[in-house]
Amino acid sequence: MNIQLDNDQWQAGSTATLGDILADLSERAHARSRIVTTVMLDSRRITDRDIDPHLLQQTSANYRQLIATSSTQQEIIESAHGAIERYRSVVVEEGTSLANQFRMGVQDLSSFDAWLGKVADAVEIIENGQKRVGTQSQGRAIAEWIEELLAARHIRDTVRMADLLEYEILPRIAA
User: Fold this and answer.
1) How is the chain split into domains, by residue range?
2) What are the pLDDT digits (tens) for 45-75?
3) How much is the pLDDT for 93?
4) Reduced to 3 DSSP states, what percent helix, strand and coil does the chain have, rounded to the nearest 5?
5) C-alpha 112: how far from its chain's center?
6) How far is 137 from 82, CA to CA, in rounded Å?
7) Are the beta carbons of 94 and 117 closer than 8 angstroms?
8) Third-level CATH fold of 2-71
């Protein structure tokens, strides 16, 4: 079987399993600080949902070629810029709604708890996408304010929670 990762090509032995080949492919990409982003097995696109024990146990003799492409983490983040910005906007809109509810005295924190999971995802995206040498990352700054927010949540101080959201956390997520 002929294997291609970006511009590199090599042959796999006919007894090699697809599991072994995919592991080797991943290791080669990782060695170049890259992530495999697409895999075509013959003319069929393979996604993570297609990878199951049956497929992994098949031998390369059943196929002609495997073509894969890879990208750096930064390239992936840059290509997802529009989606990331939309996600940040959703998190900010939902946070603004929560702050308004807290100001009106709403004490039900279940939607707030669900929203915190989205904030964690947003902070991870921000942290991965904005590495600046010598300065505190925006993600770390948000995380520190989240600690304050959780302390206010613990004592059910919804006014403080609204203030932290409105003045400290949401502007940093939106930036």
Assistant:
1) 2-71, 78-174
2) 999 999 999 999 999 999 999 999 999 988 9
3) 97
4) 60, 15, 25
5) 21
6) 21
7) no
8) Ubiquitin-like (UB roll) (3.10.20)
- Res. 161: pLDDT tops 60: yes
Within 8 A by CB and 6+ apart from 148, the residues are 164, 168
User: Exposed, middle or buried, 113 (CB in 10 Å: 0-12/13-18/19+)?
Assistant: exposed
Whether residue 33 is predicted with pLDDT greater than 80 in this model: the reply is yes
Q: Quick one: tokens of 7?
A: 């511009």
CB burial class (10 A; 0-12, 13-18, 19+) of residue 148? Answer: middle
Sheet bearing 2-5, strands edge to edge? 8-11, 2-5, 65-71, 35-41, 44-46
Indicate whether 87 pLDDT > 80: yes
User: Which tokens is 91 given?
Assistant: 């998190």
Number of separate helices (H) and strands (E) present in the chain? 8, 5
* Cα–Cα–Cα angle for 117, 118, 119, rounded to 5 degrees: 90
pLDDT tens per residue across span 100-149: 999 998 888 899 999 999 999 999 888 876 655 556 678 888 999 999 99
Strands (E) located in 8-163: 8-11, 35-41, 44-46, 65-71
Tokens 């196929």, residue located: 63
Beta partners for residue 3, in sequence order: 10, 66
